[in-house]
Amino acid sequence: MSTDQKEKPKTKKNTAAFVVSTLFTLILILFYFSFGSIFISLSSYYTLNRMNGSRETDKIYANDFPYKNIFTESSEDWLPYQYGKWMTRTLISAFATNRFYLDKLFNFTGEKLIGATGIKETLALLIGPLIMFTLVFISNIAGYISTWVSAISNIGMVVPSGLELMIMAIPLLIPLLMYPFFLLFSVNLLGMGIGIVQMMMMIGFLFIMPFMDSLNRGTIMNTLLNNKYIIMLSFFTLTTIHAFGFLGDTAGYVSLGMSIAGLVAYIVMKLMRRN
């Protein structure tokens, strides 16, 4: 078998790998810049509007389950009911605290992006998704920490009365000695649960729900079209890397030339917009 015959299957395989990687790159870039558009949109919205649930006094915590339950609705003041109220209060405070700081973050970025065009908007598109991915990671840790802070700040709700202390002390002090460990276990379990739930809610809030609304989809599309040159530049840059890796130097340099052309077009368009 000649060298050319051996090379043909390899060339076809590399070409197929290049096509697949190029399609994957295109999808990845479109999603990435869509997330950047979502970040800009959320920042703008929460500069003008307060996030629902960012205060413990919001209606959601007074009217909706699980914040409104048999413990919060009961007038009983003995320890089991106080424990249920304490856990509910900790839950509310943890969620409200995290939403409060998330609202503050979007308010801050929104103020910085008011009327943003050109380089500032491009930077927001590039950095925004990284901030969003970081928020998902932080939300889990923040949920756990805020649970402990809330539980400690409301610990007075589960301090037994004198009669309850006497009752727990009767069976060889065992219930009394176990009670602090029971509280610690409860908070730890609740904190892990809130962390996981909050991370899932953050994923839905940042990456899924915006695509479910037609108005948001339109905003995302307009942002992508307004920034088509930086998207093209990003696409050609990554394609160049794939071209050098799969197709060799010739195809790589051709793709590099297209990347440079995309960069020039991007700079020219930005200068024309500024003028």
How does the helix and strand content classify structurally? Answer: mainly alpha
Q: Helical element count? A: 9
Separation of the first and last Cα atoms: 63 Å
List low-confidence stretches.
1-7
Number of strands: 0
Helical content stands at: over 70%
Order of helices and strands: HHHHHHHHH
3D shape? elongated
**Count of discrete structural domains:** 2
Average of per-residue pLDDT values: 80
Radius of gyration: 28 Å
Beta-strand percent range: under 5%
Largest pleated sheet: none
Please provide a written account of the structure:
- This protein is 82% helix and 0% strand.
- The N terminus is likely disordered.
- By secondary structure, it is mainly α.
- Helix 3 runs parallel beside helix 6.
- The protein is elongated, with a radius of gyration of 28 Å.
- The N and C termini lie far apart (63 Å).
- The chain has 2 domains: 76 residues; 190 residues, no CATH class.
Quick take:
The protein is mainly alpha-helical. The chain has helices at 3-48, 59-63, 79-112, 119-153, 162-169, 174-212, 214-226, 228-246, 249-274. The chain folds into two domains: 3-31 and 228-274; 34-223, no CATH class.
Index terms:
2 domains; 275 residues; 9 helices; mainly alpha; 0% strand; disordered N terminus
List the helices and strands and how they pair.
Layout: H1 3-48, H2 59-63, H3 79-112, H4 119-153, H5 162-169, H6 174-212, H7 214-226, H8 228-246, H9 249-274
